Amino acid sequence: MLNSYLLALAQLRDPRILKPLLWSSLLSIVSLIVFLVLGTNAVDWLFESLSESSTAWMGDWGEWIKAAAKFLAFIFLLAIAYFFFGAVHAAYLGLFLDGIVDAVRDKHYPEIELNPPPPIMRSTVSSTRFVLTSLSVNLIISPFYLLGWFFPPTGLILQIWINGLLLGKEYGHLIEERIPPVYKASKKPYTRFGMLAEALWMVPILNFTAPVLLCGAIMHDRMKRHEKEATSPD
Q1: Does 200 reside within a domain?
Q2: Is 0.70 topped by the overall pTM?
């Protein structure tokens, strides 16, 4: 696994890998900004929707109370955005995954003829499904996350394991779609790969490269497993 990640890291400067990385990062940041703006503006909408009799008790402190509510809402939404940013970033990258797969194939496995990329609509549906699944699972598990943080490092380990499982399964499935039947190997869960990507995501700056490295690492592992199975004696 580590060797596969190192091979992916060595190819990080490839323009066909940098482009998906930049696009997915830009879209994720824009989505984060939109989420924060809409969330904080919802506080204004809430105050404006209240009748004057409901806000009369605020008196001269009305503007201060509204400003404090917007600030607290911003902090709360920022925490949520940070918590789910990795899933959103990974989902956006899923739309550009084929460029990374092709770049890895061309440099390391040129003899392999991959399946054509799936239609953009299918990729969009797959990415949307991944985000919704990740949000749902993490919301359900969130009480255990909070409880685990009182018994470190239980909360951290649980978060890395759950999201690593989701990432490994999703990216393993996406890459498997590009593998022709002749190269099909025994299926393998990529939970460990996803867990390492989730751990990398917690490191500032390096977190943007985590899904790209995960994609490249799974591709390398997938191809090397085929080579081993093809050369192993019956």
Answers
A1: yes
A2: yes
